[in-house]
Write a structure and sequence with these properties.
CATH topology of the largest domain: FAD/NAD(P)-binding domain
Number of helices: 10
CATH superfamily of the largest domain: FAD/NAD(P)-binding domain
Helix content: 25-40%
Distance between the termini: 30 Å
Low-confidence stretches: 4-8
Largest sheet: 9 strands, mixed
Shape: globular
Structural class: alpha+beta
Radius of gyration: 21 Å
CATH class of the largest domain: Alpha Beta
């Protein structure tokens, strides 16, 4: 079976992602210009591909990684990099829809993924991961029962949480909200620089990385896989990992995800000031349109949200207006904190019906595995995907695969 793909990459980012402005081109990677072979080939050089490469390389598996773009210039550079155990679907709602056992396991896996990622960053010497508490809030008084029910579900699941009233939220954080849940488990990082740090570490262990090396066609014999690049070069591999994220629509025909644009804006550097709110807490609200925000290491305020269905045209034409709306949203929530915008951008993310990613094998593509961390917490999903795919390639059983398989019950 031979699959052919479109010539061009999807345009997943518009504007000026702050990570790229701040750090520029971290490292240079070559194009693949010759035929080669490897035990495992990974398509996708963003955070999902980098974490997959890390787990496979640490397991002693020979790998080659290919990306059609410059490394990190897909959705990873646009990520606001909040690390939370929460899914896009609240826990008590997920319990109602998928059952208690599946819902609790999904949330707990995301929680433990934060801890495992912290251990990985320490091992590779990456310093841009910081533990942070997070606040899940609503501005609507009528949502008290909703927040209370979610609080009780998280507490029962074993998460360390506190229920906050309107008075407590404003007193401690200057936030005008009605009800909130304070979670102790969370972190912030930088998906763009972390991607490069992971790849550099893995290259010291034997990983080969090539960017601007777009796969044009895949021939799958059932025993071996041949990747043909646009320049005519060929890669032969025993196994293939697809970590292309939202561009998976080029690889499988099944409709598994709806694509959305999310928008972000970051304020000017405020390193000369004290942090504008207590403990550098992250925020995420339940309202529609929703938003999420955090502080950077130099006390910039980073806000994201105002999502809408994916469109390259929309992504390029309206992110300036969206950034103004996000600024207005912030000023309503934090009336005492000034906000001066500096950079704005948009990025792409995906939503599945049950808010869970797709990980593992797809029946119609033997020897190809998928690490598709769809959702608002794609980085933690990518950790989970990397672990599960390592176990699949090593032929180790892992019961958690059933949570994320393509034919799961929604």
């Amino acid at each position: 079976m031979v699959q052919f793909f479109s010539r061009h990459c999807m345009e997943l980012v518009a504007g000026y992602p702050f990570s790229v402005i701040q750090h520029g081109l971290k490292f240079q990677y070559p194009k693949l210009l010759n035929d080669t072979s490897s035990g495992v080939a990974i398509i996708g050089g963003g955070i999902s591909g980098a974490l997959t490469a890390y787990y496979l390389t640490e397991a002693g598996i020979e790998c080659i990684l290919l990306d059609g773009r410059t490394i990190g210039f897909g959705s990873s550079c646009a990520s606001t990099s909040l690390l939370q155990y929460e899914l896009d679907r609240p826990l008590h709602k997920l319990i109602e829809e998928t059952g208690e056992e599946r819902a609790l396991r999904s949330y707990r896996l995301c929680g433990s993924a934060i801890d495992r990622l912290a251990s990985i960053t320490e091992k590779i010497g990456f310093t841009e991961l910081e533990r942070r508490r997070s606040i899940f809030f609503t501005t609507h008084k009528s949502q008290q029962a909703f927040i209370q029910k979610e609080f009780e579900a998280r507490k029962k699941a074993g998460f360390e949480v506190s229920f906050l009233s309107k008075e407590e939220i404003y007193r401690d954080y200057g936030l005008k909200a009605s009800w909130a849940i304070l979670s102790e488990l969370g972190a912030t990082t930088n998906a763009y620089t972390l991607t490069h740090a992971l790849l550099q570490y893995c290259m010291s262990k034997g990983l080969r990385v090539f960017d601007r090396s777009k796969v044009k066609a895949i021939k799958n014999t059932g025993k071996e896989i041949y990747l043909r690049l646009e320049n005519g070069s060929t890669v032969k591999a025993d196994k293939l990992v697809n970590a292309t994220g939202f561009e998976v629509v080029n690889f499988i025909s099944k409709k598994i995800v709806d694509l959305y644009c999310t928008y972000a804006v970051v304020s000017e550097n405020q390193s000369e000031k004290e942090a504008p709110w207590k403990d550098h807490v992250m925020f995420w609200n339940t309202d529609d349109p929703y938003l999420y925000l955090r502080l950077t290491s130099d006390n910039r305020i980073l806000i994201g949200g105002r999502d809408e269905r994916f469109s390259t045209k929309a992504s390029r034409k309206i992110f300036d207006r969206k950034s103004d709306l996000l600024k207005d949203d912030f000023e309503k929530l934090f009336p005492k904190i000034p906000f001066r915008s500096e950079f704005a951008w948009s990025g792409t993310f995906g939503r599945t019906k049950d808010s869970l990613p797709y990980i593992g094998a797809y029946p119609k593509t033997p020897n190809i595995y998928y690490a598709l961390g769809f959702g608002g917490n794609g980085i933690t999903f990518s950790v989970i995907a990397a672990e599960l795919i390592r176990d699949l390639i090593l032929e180790k059983g892992n019961p958690d695969l059933s949570l994320f398989q393509f034919d799961r019950r929604h």
